[in-house]
Design brief:
This protein is an alpha/beta fold. It has helices spanning about 40-60, 75-95, 105-110, 120-125, 130-140, 140-150, 160-175; strands at about 1-5, 10-20, 25-35, 65, 100.
Length: about 180
């Protein structure tokens, strides 16, 4: 089966297409949909819809997995709701099915990735380690990237964390089935 994972955010939407066949997990294609600061909202939403629609049509997508919304700030939330709605709309129009949404804590927990509390962070910081190593071990984005890179033998960097999240969503969905 062909899966499309989508990590929705304001600045760049990460996406990944993965073929899952039993134990075989093959990355077919990945990318980002960037949002320039000076672009009008309507133009950006149209671009997202067109891009996702193209991926669904050209890669024979069977299921779409998206990150559910987590809102801290009202203004940001309004924009994220619009993007979320556009993605769900194009998925339904193209595939006649609902996108499967997982909260970030749920899909990360399914992969064994969780936020560390202060005691856990401090336990990972032996005197011999420098601050960069500590950040690498403690930052949730780095931990997702490390997990995806290890499991699929990829080499995503911190700048590609939105793509790693899209990949992680699909892997978590598979592991939770």
């Amino acid at each position: 089966m062909m899966y499309l994972g989508i990590d929705i955010s304001l600045k760049s939407i990460g996406w990944a297409i993965i073929s899952l066949d039993g134990d075989d997990e093959t990355i077919v294609k990945t990318g980002l949909i960037k949002n320039p600061d000076d672009q009008a909202t309507g133009s950006h939403l149209t671009r997202i819809s067109d891009h996702i629609g193209y991926l669904i049509s050209n890669y024979n997508i069977d299921k779409v997995i998206i990150e559910d919304l987590f809102i801290k700030f009202v203004q940001v939330g309004k924009s994220l709701f619009q993007i979320h709605g556009v993605v769900k709309d194009i998925v339904y129009r193209k595939l006649k099915l609902e996108a499967i949404a997982y909260h970030q804590g749920t899909w990360r927990k399914a992969l064994g990735i969780k936020r560390l509390n202060k005691a856990e962070r401090d336990a990972l910081l032996p005197e011999a380690r420098n601050k960069t190593d500590h950040k690498y071990l403690c930052d949730i984005k780095h931990r997702v990237i490390a997990y995806v890179n290890d499991r699929l033998k990829t080499e995503y960097t911190y700048e590609e964390n939105d793509i790693a999240d899209a990949v992680g969503l699909i892997l978590a969905h598979k592991d939770m089935k």
